[in-house]
Structures are given as C-alpha cells and as structure tokens.
Design brief:
Blueprint: E1 3-4, H1 7-15, H2 17-28, E2 31-36, E3 39-44, H3 47-56, E4 61-63, H4 65-69, H5 71-74, H6 83-93, H7 99-119, E5 125-127, H8 128-145, H9 153-171, H10 175-179, H11 184-205, H12 213-219, E6 221-222, E7 225-226, H13 229-259, H14 262-276, H15 290-302, E8 309-313, E9 317-319, E10 322-324, E11 329-332, H16 334-337, H17 379-396, E12 397-401, E13 409-411, E14 415-417, E15 422-427, H18 434-445
Parallel strand pairs: 1-2, 3-11
Antiparallel strand pairs: 2-3, 4-8, 5-15, 6-7, 8-11, 9-10, 12-15, 13-14
This protein binds protoporphyrin IX containing FE (HEM).
Protoporphyrin IX containing FE (HEM) binds near residues 78, 246, 250, 368 and 374.
Length: about 450
C-alpha cells in the first residue's frame, strides 16, 4: 500500500519534482507508490513497466489530470483528446507527418536558420533559450501556415509567450478556476489567446492550399468527412504549443552541453567540416552526419524536454507483481529512467559515442518522444529541425558559456533552464561571405 506523503515530501514535489522523483525511485525501486489525500500515484521505473503502461495497457489508461485540464486552452486537439476522437484525428493527421512531407519543410528550416545566423554578431552575448525561441518561432509558424504568415509571426510569438505559463496554470489542481481570475496577467494571457484564435481562423478561411500543414489538415478527410473549423483550430494550437517549447529547450540544452564539453564540440566541428566542406547542409546530408545525430540523442537522454508522462488507470492494472487500482495516476519519467545506471553505462556523463556502437539502448529505457499510440506525432519534424539548426549554426558559430552562471533544470510543462543561460558568440567560418551564403541558399531552394 503506498504511503502518504509527509508535508516535507509534498513541498519537495512542488518545488523540485526532479529531486522528489529521483529520491522516490532510489528509495522505493521499480514501482514507487505514494498517496496524496486518498489518491494513489505510482512512478514506474523499469523499461518493462513502461512498456506495459504504453503498450500492454495502452487502451486502459487515459491522459493524466494535468493534460485533461489543459483542454480549456487546447480544446480537443491531438494531445488532449481521447478514444475514438483521438484515433480519428491521429489517422487524419498522420499523413501530414510522413517522411516525404516532413522533408518538404527542410527548405524552410534551412532558409530561416541561415537568415537568422546572418543576424548574429561576433563577440556579442546572447540568451540561448530566447535566441532558440526567436529562431524556431518563424519555422513552426511558416511550416504550419505557409509564407503568408510572415507578417503575423509576432502575434503567434506573443500568444505562445502568454500561453506557455497559462498552460502551466491550467495544469495545477484547480487550475481552471485560476484561469478565470481577473488579474492583469490572466487578462493579458486571455487577450493573447483571443488574438491567436482570430489569426488562426483567418488563416483557415483564407487558406490557399499551398501544401503546408494547415492546408493538409483542412484537406484531410475520411468517410465521415473532414475536420470542423473548431477542430482544425484545436489541432493548430496543439501543434504550436507541443512543438515549439520542446524543440527550443532541446536545442538550448544541447548548446549548453556542447559548451561544457569542448572535445565533443571539436568532434562535431570536425564531422561538419569533413562532410559539408563549408556548404550549407540540406536534408540529404543528415544521414552522413551520425555524430550530429548522436549529440542530439544524448542531449535528449540527459535533458529530455518532456521529462515525465502521466496517465490515469481506467481499471485495475498489473505491473510485474503489483496491481494498481482504477483511478491511480501513473508516471513514466524520462528524467529518471534515461539517467538510470542500470540501463546506461556511466549514465550521468554526456557521451554521444554511446549511440554509435552496435548496442542499442534497452527498449523503453529511452523514450524522449513517448511511446505507443500516443507517441509524439512531431518526432520526425523535431529531429530534422534540431539537426538542421545545429548543423548550420555549429558550422558558423562557437557558443561559449559566460562565466559565473548557475545552470539548473526546472521541471515545468517542459524541462527548461531555471535561469537564463548567457553565451558568447565566436564566428567560425570566415571565408563564406553572408551574401554568397544567402545566394547559395536561395539557389538551393529554387
Ligand atoms: C524535442 C521536441 C519534442 C519532444 C521532446 C516531444 C515530446 C513529446 C512526448 C513525450 C509526447 C507524448 C505525450 C504523452 O504521451 O502524453 C508528445 C506528443 C505530441 N507531440 Fe511532441 N515532442 C517534440 C516535438 C514536437 C513537435 C515539433 C510537434 C509538432 C510539430 C509535436 C506535436 C506533438 C503532438 C500533437 C503530440 C500528441 C500526440 C498524440 O497524442 O497523438 N511535438 N511529444
């Protein structure tokens, strides 16, 4: 029978959930239970149990309370919907995320990153999370809506800035009541959400069918017809929210790890130099950049942007020798399992080489994008985006960590740095003029 949390443990759960879960896993083992009030919670900390959660019992669980409450903002989008609606939406949307479709977004990712890089000045100091947000925002906006959104990218940015903390609030116990508070913060956030809704509905109504994600959502249909306007709006908001902060934080952690591991950074530079020889990378280069891929894989192991996944049991479920009651909340935490020395040798060391051996990690010990029927639909998009951005920027820039900073993770909706991380820019490529580079990209896009 799981024990009630003490007041100290309860405070730690809210203040520092990473430490809370780590201690729980160390003390209680593979199935670590606890109770808050009358509700039982379990942290599943073994790949077999994680497999059972996502696969064996996949049909007998639903999203946890936090995500259910975020329906107030996201409506019935893919992240929050359940059952038949989720299944239909997933089927309708999956084609837009097929390999060949994702490849079509690569040009936009490359052009935006080259353009962004041309704006950086050597010997300046940047806030890495803010910069990755500034770079990835037009990428996500333009791949979703097409080029005509250019003038409205700032509306999307303002709404996302307001929505991310709003989502955090919505996920708290009684969060929905907090959202209605007449405070200036809530009023501003609601105004930003309304502005985004107006923009999304305008883009839906003006869609030119250019083949970007929104056009594909609007064109998708099955025997029961297509999606309603409201459903498309919910999906668009979901994609914006699920796809932006996660990739921003993944890349920010990657730059931090590279800046603190100079030998690994050098190996990455060597690979980029020998494979690309100064060329702007394209999607066809990715397969020839295994070290780049390993660096990102290892980043998402140590700093998984989605650091935990919650589910509610719809019926009693068995994990190994333990049966949990209906209504129990179940967690699988990437932060805990992906850092576990039972599954990864020297588990706290940043070592991209571990991904270049023949020993694949144990299945369900590594799940940065989740698993089973609810696995991230944007996984391919995210890999490609992170690979191209990292390749292009690391080819041109060395990012050095400014001295005297405290870098700690903060576990909120995503795992992000607790404080801003400042880095200094050093230019690497001197022989490619910006004009030559831009014309190279423009030619490659024709
Ligand atoms: C590094 C980047 C990303 C990470 C680490 C990540 C992680 C995840 C995880 C762990 C889930 C599963 C949640 C659960 O089971 O409860 C998920 C679901 C989802 N993600 Fe991502 N994601 C990333 C990028 C993206 C991108 C770029 C998009 C869209 C363009 C996206 C859209 C979604 C959607 C719509 C779902 C819900 C899927 C469903 O339930 O059918 N994600 N993501």
């Amino acid at each position: 029978m799981p024990k009630h949390l003490s007041l100290t443990q309860f405070r730690q759960l809210h203040r520092d959930p990473l430490q809370f879960f780590s201690t729980l896993a160390q003390e209680e083992g593979e199935i670590a239970g606890f109770k808050i009030g009358r509700k039982p919670y379990y942290l599943l900390n073994h790949p077999d149990h994680i497999h059972d959660l996502f696969i064996t019992h996949g049909k007998h669980v639903q999203k946890g309370r936090a995500l259910r409450q975020s329906k107030r903002l996201l409506g019935e989008g893919l992240l929050t919907s359940e059952g038949a609606l989720h299944l239909r939406q997933r089927r309708l949307m999956q084609p837009a995320f097929h390999r060949q479709e994702i490849a079509r977004y690569a040009d936009c990712m490359v052009a935006e990153t080259v353009h962004f890089s041309a704006d950086w000045q050597p010997a300046t100091t940047i806030n890495i999370v803010a910069e990755m947000r500034r770079l990835l925002l037009p990428i996500v906006a333009k791949t979703l809506f097409g080029g005509e959104v250019s003038a409205d990218v700032q509306t999307v940015g303002t709404a996302l800035d307001a929505l991310t903390p709003l989502l955090q609030t919505a996920m708290l116990p009684f969060g929905n009541r907090l959202l209605d508070l007449p405070t200036p913060r809530m009023k501003n956030a609601r105004a930003a959400l309304n502005a985004l809704d107006v923009l999304v509905y305008r883009l839906i109504d003006d869609d030119t069918g250019e083949g970007f994600l929104l056009s594909m959502l609007l064109a998708a249909h099955d025997a029961d017809g297509g999606m309603s306007r409201q459903q498309v709006r919910d999906e668009v908001l979901t994609l914006l929210l699920a796809g932006h902060e996660t990739s921003v934080n993944g890349l920010a952690w990657c730059w931090y790890l590279l800046a603190t591991h100079p030998k690994i950074l050098q190996k990455l530079h060597d690979e980029l130099a020998s494979v690309l020889a100064g060329r702007v990378p394209s999607i066809s280069d990715i397969a020839s950049l295994p070290y780049l891929d390993a660096v990102l894989r290892e980043t998402l192991r140590l700093y998984p942007p989605a650091w935990t996944i919650g589910r509610t049991a719809l019926q009693p479920l068995t994990f190994g020798t333990c049966t949990v009651p209906a209504g129990a909340t179940l967690f699988a935490s990437q932060w805990i399992t992906q850092r576990d020395a039972r599954f990864f040798a020297d588990s706290l060391t940043f070592n991209p080489d571990r991904w270049l051996t023949d020993d694949a990690p144990r299945k369900f010990a590594y799940f940065p994008f989740g698993a089973g029927a609810r696995i991230c639909i944007g996984e391919r998009f995210a890999w490609l985006e992170m690979q191209l951005v990292l390749a292009i920027l690391a080819q041109r820039w060395r990012l050095e960590l400014c001295a005297g900073q405290i870098v700690e993770p903060l576990a909120r909706v995503t795992l992000r740095p607790k404080h801003d991380i400042y880095m200094r820019l050093k230019r690497r490529v001197h022989n490619v003029s910006q004009a030559a580079e831009m014309s190279e990209v423009i030619t490659s896009l024709r």
